[in-house]
Amino acid sequence: MSASYDSAHGAIISTWSVQNNQFKWDVAIPANTTATIWVPTTATSSVKEGGKPAATSQGVTPLRIEAGFAVYEVASGSYEFTAAQ
């Protein structure tokens, strides 16, 4: 599935899927913008961005765990999140 939104700074683009209990999410945030994203998972240690732990990925700041989601703030750029379901 995919969605996009034309923000004041440009398009925010989101494409996601779930296959074999693996959530995959490609998201693009325009320049001069940050976003709060909610990755659906109960296995928060499984969340990766670009193949490495999301908490160590450049531009990604862990915020909290809430109601089955790992919540992050991301800077402008393109990201590929994965997580176990």
What percent of residues adopt helix (DSSP H or I)? under 10%
Assign an overall shape: globular
- CATH class label: Mainly Beta
Task: Look at the structure and name the CATH superfamily.
Answer: Maltose phosphorylase, domain 3
CATH-defined topology = Maltose phosphorylase, domain 3
Give the N-to-C terminal Cα separation.
17 Å
Classify the secondary structure makeup into a structural class.
mainly beta
User: How are the strands ordered across the major sheet?
Assistant: 1-2-3-9-5-6
Proportion of strand residues: over 45%
Work out the number of β strands.
9
SSE diagram, text form:
Elements: E1 2-7, E2 10-19, E3 22-29, E4 35-40, E5 48-49, E6 52-53, E7 60-66, E8 69-74, E9 77-84
What brief labels describe this structure?
85 residues, mainly beta, Maltose phosphorylase, domain 3, 6-stranded antiparallel sheet, 3-stranded antiparallel sheet, 9 strands
What does this 3D model show about the protein?
A hairpin with a 2-residue loop joins strand 7 (60-66) and strand 8. Strands 1-2-3-9-5-6 form a 6-stranded antiparallel sheet, with no helix packed on it. Helices cover 0% and strands 65% of the residues. It has a single domain (2-84), classed as Maltose phosphorylase, domain 3, CATH 2.60.420. It is globular and about 35 Å long. It contains no helices and 9 strands. The protein has 85 residues and is an all-beta fold.
